[in-house]
Amino acid sequence: MRNENSVLSHNPLRHGLRIGRTPEPCTMVIFGASGDLTSRKLVPALYNLARERRLPGGFSVIGFARRPWDDAQFRDLLRSGVNANSRNGSVDPALWSSFAEGISYLQGSFDEAQAYAKLSERLAELDARRGTGGNRVFYLATPPESYSEIIHQLGAHGLSRSPNGGWTRIIVEKPFGRDLMSARELNNQLLAVFDEPQVYRIDHYLGKETVQNILIFRFANGIFEPLWDRRAVDHVQITVSESIGVEDRGGYYDRSGALRDMIQNHLMQLLSLVAMEPPVAYDADAVRDEKVKVLRAIRPIYPNEVDHYVIRGQYGSGSVSGRPITGYRDERGVASGSQTETYVALKLFIESWRWAGVPFYLRSGKALPRRVSEIAVQFKTVPTMLFADMPLNAIEPNVLAIKIQPDEGITLKVGSKVPGQQQIRPVTMDFRYGTSFGVASPEAYERLLLDCMLGDGTLFTRRDEVEASWSIITPIHQGWTSGSALLSPNYEAGSWGPAAADEFMLRDGRTWRRL
Ligand SMILES: NC(=O)c1ccc[n+]([C@@H]2O[C@H](COP(=O)([O-])OP(=O)(O)OC[C@H]3O[C@@H](n4cnc5c(N)ncnc54)[C@H](OP(=O)(O)O)[C@@H]3O)[C@@H](O)[C@H]2O)c1
Q: What percent of the chain has pLDDT over 70?
């Protein structure tokens, strides 16, 4: 006889949605608390969680940075950050005052041992005063060069383990390394001080509702999965385009580039969710086991093959929606002869039974006409002899597009007869989050911060995943540095990227989607 309880406990959706759980009381220490990420994303996300009563009682924040602020100045800055950036508009004064009671500031430099001794005292004091029970989250919202110093100091001050049977977790921001070797080194440093289940490597794309919905869409509906393989799918296109240039992040970006900044993390995550096998459970390890198998099955692009599989570009001056954009090399912080790519397109093959022979085209760039993130699964065309008297290309292939931003939703393109005519025209079936549910989606950081406090690592990147992804990306960089043609501005800001990227698709008899 079926045991109802065991059926429920193995139902991935029931398990995975974790409706309404509230974390245990804890303190979040934000390293880099005077920075942009803290005031623009982290604290607005925490405030929204407080607004929705998802934070535990006694929840506290300690902001750690160098600026000589006191608690009141720090709280004022965060309040303006919430006012400017919260999806719920300006702050509610009563709610803010109870939320802000738990916020304090600790001035110190990351390499200053004394500051960690003070941090340790402050944490113990909060455990006693606000009942946080020795539970801590350390958030590294700092320049990546500071990660190893902070990790080392936390270990040296005994802060990687909690007193009183509490838990300690650490969230590490992107970028996680700049190549395979540095990512491995950072993992080694982290795991010399913390255990893997304590480590939460963040990729905020995984916190987006539509990205989480990829798994629900695939595995909670019976009709798509039988078509989700090489027999029915012609190819997959994943696009993440930005309409802005580098703005004031030229210095950072020039050391990074589109391949590191977008493809290694966000697009590889999207690819692995679209291509993975069904996990045996909706839990952190089962989901990540399947994702990492996809990354490991990707056929490597060796340095001498880079020009065949990868196109790179750099934008010159132009305009997007009437807004002038300075050419990349003239941006502040960018070297005058910079070889950094602001656009990249590549073709990958997953050597698995399911996906053999199906190309996955990935592209991402800056200063493109629109800000769009989407995954498009293009199905094979039907044999057309039935409609032989119609013009060539009259029947367009079915495309399932998962839209991540700006309008979150899913569309399916199908061919339909035009009324009164012997013609077929594509129409789309649309699902939009906004109109179907009538509520705004939570910000990615809300979900991710809450999951970390709940001890759920499903939407964070595991050590083997991050290294598998770098092992695909690093040989491409090696190919670029060891010989291929020098990069010069090859697309105008406001265009859809270099002409070579269109030719790259045409060689395969395909075109990029017009977005
Ligand atoms: N901003 C974003 O939207 C965004 C998005 C995704 C990922 N990230 C990642 O998040 C991290 C933080 O980005 P951010 O934009 O917030 O950087 P940021 O604005 O430059 O802030 C850096 C923070 O680190 C502090 N800091 C730097 N060196 C320090 C030291 N030696 N001792 C103590 N504090 C020090 C600074 O404090 P003082 O100035 O007070 O010294 C400041 O609070 C980066 O890894 C970035 O890649 C950011």
A: 94
